[in-house]
Amino acid sequence: MEQYRRLTEETQRYPIGLTTTDKKLHISVIGAKETCSLVLFQQESGEPDLKIPMDPAAREGDVWNLTVEGRWPRKTMYCLEMDGVLKGDPCGRQFAGWERWGDPKNLEHVMKSPLYPEIFDWEGDKPLRIPMHESIIYRCHVRGMTCHKSSGLRNKGTFRALTEKIPYIKELGVTAVELMPVNEFQEIVTQETGWTPKADQKPKATGRLNYWGYTTGYYYAPKASYSSGQKKRPVQEMKTLVKELHRQGMELIIELYFSGKESPAMVLDIVRFWVKEYHVDGIHLVGYAPTELIGKDPYLRHTKLFATSWSGVEGSKDKHLSEYNDGFLTDMRRVLKGDEDQMRPFIYRVGHNPKGYGVVNYMAHTNGFTMMDMVSYDRKHNEDNGEGNRDGSDYNYSWNCGLEGISKKKKLMEIRLNQIRNAMTLLFLSQGTPLLLAGDEFGNSKSGNNNAYCQDNELSWINWNQLRTNKDIWDFATFIINFRKEHPIFHMEEEPLNMDYLACGHPDVSFHGEKAWRPEYENFRRQLGVLYCGEYGKKEDGAPDDYFYVMYNMHWEPHEFGPPRPPKGRRWHVAVDTSLSQINGYYPPGEEPIAQDQRRYLVNGRSVVVLIGKAHEAEKEETPCQEKNVGLIK
């Protein structure tokens, strides 16, 4: 290897990690206590070719610094020797050594990084900045999305395979993809908990895998085993995924998990890095992160940031900060299964969209039942995890519809499919930003496992055969997603005021009981009517939206509703009736039949009906004024 010249008088402060130019190499390192050296390799394997010790005099606090002048071959790799042990650079941008997912031999490899980064042509790519009220999120796992043999792809479980699924995701109608951790982490669970190995000892594999990736890792590098081919190029494939999503009008949001042991400054630097270097549109902070510091950062002002709460941070008009927690799931699942005393939480969740903050809503999530399991199991079934079914939450707020587990009974499946249509309607007709768990659009199941963190197999992988066998679920999902997108009244910029602030004769949104203008909150009530005034929702061409009346009957018995009279010149037509399995719960746009009785509608048990007010020449009578402003919730 060529000689180098140490620049001991270098005073420029560089960012943490490695910075290279044509003639200079600078590295700043955290983690060493007594000694630290830069170690260079001309080959990925073999002995080091050069070791450059770092001068303790150039140390600033806990940060070791080194600047040298010299040139090395483009394929040169490096790692660090910290306190006598070879380790990967905690801030390395790419790694060799862990290319094979789940291979125990990975534990034997020293993590090495390329000395020089690859060039990537972004071709003018820019963030899309889709408003939160127009966003619809699709959440998936890189491996789980395409590992199943039914995916039909060659490079299963990789960034490239996920890129090949973009046309499918676009057809579904979503606007963003959220990925579980994609940074480099060690998926092999070892026996090192509470044990500090000596320099010549390696941790032992337990045979279990951390499939989800919620663990500390190398935060500046995409996961090498998520890239395809023999020559792994995770940086190129990850950036290509982002660029192709943007070309198709979709954003990318990534999860970053922090244990709380990382310094706040480091966490902030990591978040900034992924936004700048990988053009990601959003970051979902999982675990323990300094939300107040990140939420106030001016560099992230236009980046979507998700966290459980943003307490202590002032919101903004564009709602780049969003609350992301199980509140909607818990309340709406209880509504769905018909629990008592749920009308007030129901009303809150339908309209919740606070000023200054976004809200992410979901009926199913990775940590919990899928939507199909939510209607198929009363209890968790985590036996395969090897923890005696003690892991995972006992509070799933689910209902098996009469029989535990998978069934082929036609009547039972009709009930379950109807409940899934109800759940989709609850999700996509609520204000806030909906999130759909990958596979729920065609009834994917995890066999009742609500904590499949270690299941890297068909239990967690999406079975694409179900797209064919459960096509009716797919059809309803795509319908209701596009129904929401076409009608801005269901995704307003801010929370409805339940008032007639436009003086158009109707409040923006109003809540009703079985009788119009009379909401009912007794603990035994399971019925709610919601009237949407289209004057408060403007379409892309500036025209007002339609009027809608949504009738929710979560009781197991039918109930008769009295819809409010539609505006002059309009009559109620039926757009959705989830109980009608023969039409899969909906009528195609433009084919909605007129409701036979405009003043009464019998809503079947456990079902949702959506009426749309369409122009009708025979309608001459105006709605009586005394009906307009009675019983509003303010």
Describe the structure.
With 634 residues, the chain is α/β, with parallel strands linked by helices. It folds into 3 domains: 87 residues, Immunoglobulins (Immunoglobulin-like, Sandwich), CATH 2.60.40; 345 residues, TIM Barrel, CATH 3.20.20.80; 131 residues, Golgi alpha-mannosidase II (Immunoglobulin-like), CATH 2.60.40. It has 12 helices and 28 strands. The strands form 7 sheets. The chain has an 8-stranded parallel β-barrel with strand order 10-11-16-17-18-19-20-21. Strands 4, 5, 7, 8 and 9 form a 5-stranded antiparallel sheet that branches. Strands 22-23-24-28-26 form a 5-stranded antiparallel sheet, with helices on one face. α7 packs across α8 and α10 packs parallel to α12. The radius of gyration is 28 Å and the shape is elongated. The chain starts with a strand and ends in a 19-residue tail after the last strand. The C terminus is likely disordered.
Query: Which second-level CATH architecture of the largest domain applies?
Result: Alpha-Beta Barrel
Rg is 28 Å
Cα end-to-end separation? 75 Å
CATH superfamily of the largest domain: Glycosidases
Q: What's the overall geometry?
A: elongated
In total, how many domains does the architecture comprise? Answer: 3
Low-confidence stretches: 619-634
Report the average pLDDT across residues: 92
Strand order of the largest sheet: 10-11-16-17-18-19-20-21
Number of helices, where a helix is a run of at least 4 consecutive DSSP H or I residues? 12
- Beta strand %: 15-25%
Helical content band: 10-25%
Main sheet properties = 8 strands, parallel, barrel
CATH topology of the largest domain: TIM Barrel
